[in-house]
Design a protein that fits this description.
heterodimer; A: 378 residues; mainly alpha; 81% helix; disordered C terminus; B: alpha/beta; Rossmann fold; 4 domains; eleven-stranded mixed beta sheet; 13 helices; globular
Chain lengths: 378, 404
Amino acid sequence: MIEVAGEFATIALISAIAFVSPIIAERVKIPAVVLEIVLGMVFGVSFLNIIQESEWLSFLSLFGLIFLMFLAGLEIEVENVLRSGNLKQIVAFFSLSLSLAVVFAVLMGFDLFYAIILTNVAVGVVVSVLREVGLEKENFGQINIVTALVSDFSTMFLLSIYFLTGLLQIAFALMIILVFYVAYRFGKLAIWYFPDFISRWFSDEPSEIGVRGSLAIMILFVGLSSLLGVEAILGAFLAGVLLSITFRGGRKLYDKLYGMGFGFFIPIFFIKTGSELNIFQGIERLDLVIILLLASMLVKIVPSLIFSPVFGVRKAISMGALQSTKLSLTVAGVAIAMTAGIITEIEATALVTFTIVSCLLSPTLFQYLYPSFLPNTR
Amino acid sequence: MGNTNGINIPEQIQPVNIIIGSGDRVGKIASKLPESLIIDRNPKSAADLELKGFNVLNADASNVEVLSKFDSGSKLILADEDEFNLKVAKIAKTLGFDVFAVVSDEEKCSLYEIEGISKVCSSVESLISSVFGKTRYLEVPVSDEMEGLTLREYDAGEDCMVVSIFREGKILHPFPEMKLKSGDLLGVVCGEHVRITKNPFDNILLLKGEMGEGEVKEAEMLAEKFSANLILFEKVGNAFACVLDGYSESFNLDEAVEMLKRSDELDLIVTTLKEKNEKILKDLVSKFPTLILTGKGNYRRTLALVNTSNPDSVINIAKAFSRYFGGVKVLFLEEEQLKHFSKFTETEMEVEVSKGNPMVDAVKEFKSGYDLVILSLSNNIGNIDRDILWKIILDKNSSVLVVE
């Protein structure tokens, strides 16, 4: 009984942190996610050691991670990517970025997992920064967003299949892609033949059939991933993409899902991740943090020069700086890699420290480099 | 007041507009047109108009000597009885006047057209807009005789529509069943863009490939309803034969459509489409709105899907179909598009906004059964999947009018 009460107390504390984090983050002008990780550290093993490990907490945190990946998939707008007139340059940017990251990892003797992390970008932060400076609707902003979407989707996919071992597992992974395709075709047929039923998903029915249906699809894909031996996050991500490309809209339903995810489950994941990190171990590997920061800039700024004929050199470099921003997927990847034994706990701490510094440093560097953002600042 | 018994017209009278007719209608026209002279054959009416401050000549305009006294650069507006107007029109054309007419009996419009009159209008408001040749705002007082008429019954003319009603110091939004009261002031807008919403099609090109009898009948029904000419363009071997005014010649389709576009001869293409062909439809729609026929005998229910960021083309055509067929529903796919709601005056159209998923709502509405669907090929609002859009276009249960 006392144990259960302790678990409730921990969850109550985490809920309180989740509640105050965005309020404080707004005042100190940093992303709320960063503050959630930092506060997790304060209440975790690094300092106060109040947040204790429990089955409940682990489940809620895992569910938060799954929800995060599901919502990341939901954010992908394939149509935008395909419509972009600079698709070739965007693909070239990603390929070069990944190649440089692989070369870096090999030269440094790191696991290839590092290459994926270095190629990733936090789409949410990129969009937020571009919105803040009023560039999100301009050509520069649109190319940045589409580039970030392509990088995020690709690294997400690479990260998921990276943890697979053996041909059979890869074949199973491909099976989930097949299921995804079949579900997509089925979804389109359902819209055409049963529009009355599908429209209920997006209505204000008290039974919230849309939320139930979306969560069922998410959990179905997660379950299927587990059955096929694929990472649960790939299933969740594909479920999100499936809803996004099949329904292509329906803000009301998406807002409800965002409310559930970002209002409860996802903060638990970030706070718990923070609580497990020992910042002193991270400081011990300060050299690794600095190397990763430099490498993350390099693997993005060099390929960004592809865009210099379009925007000029300075703007292209500023794009590279912005594209080097890391956040949620990196933290998620670190959590999985640590569980899978690919990285040590010290490395994990260093990687999360690098992530936090990156999501503060990269947008700042972008704002410094972008030549005329100030007049447009809202 | 001048008198033409001796045909003695002062030299200084060379008006910009010459209005021929009697009574209040002529006074209404003269009050809207600057530098006007009224030629009234009725001495009593002429005297009354002069008392009201108009520039009036009491004369019989069907006497060739009367009109020949004026410079043919003046615009001649015929607002008398139709038979008299037609008589004057013949003389006026020989003297080289630019002639406009307000008809009393619309069935006689064709007689005016034979006389080669520049513009035949059914109301004073549309006549004024024709004379000015651009968009014009007028305020028309409601007289005792008009009391009790609904807006639907009130004929503002082919080029004009009521956009507001001023009543007892308030501005009211017009709707078809609104009853007029004596003393109301009608805000009326006239212009070419209004005409498009009333009668958008003068010439319709029928692209006749492998087409059934039902589809041809549908095209004929449409042409008859809009009083439009149906130009037949039939596929003969690899070429097309265009039949226009009884003259037939072989053309390449692109050349012919381009030629018709240049000569401003066409308003609508009607054809059939057996399978998805994005290029052909895009080519046609880029030139003219294109109706894909399915053999409908009438358009009892029409759905206008506003799936474009530039909705005027969809809305204007929907308004025209509402006027001639009724039963039009407009489905906006985004709430922001509601700002176009103010364009729905005078017409009785049901308007709805998608509240959930725009694509699903569009399919759901389409599936509820429509004879005609109006949509845009640009498809940049509502995120309707291209495959779904084509399913709607190719569906055999509804004809589809596609605009750019």
